[in-house]
Amino acid sequence: MICLDCYSGGHQTPALGVCRKCGAAVCGQHGKLTEQFLTCTKPISRTVTVEQPVRRLLCTACTRAHSAYAECCPRSANTVPTP
Length: 83
What we know:
Layout: H1 4-8, E1 17-18, E2 25-26, E3 32-42, E4 46-58, H2 60-72, E5 79-81
């Protein structure tokens, strides 16, 4: 698999992983490894963050979008509900 961003720029760099949000293949230069906290809802609609964050790999475009979202909604930018 080839990194999508590199391929768009005319290069063929092997991908190291896949973006968690959009599914694009990314290399070490274009991928960003971040942390994401999982949450669950307890009685009386109380959201609790589960400790020990999970790793999340994002491409350049999704990293930018996620950063913009984090500026707008900082409390929920790094969490995702669990079933």
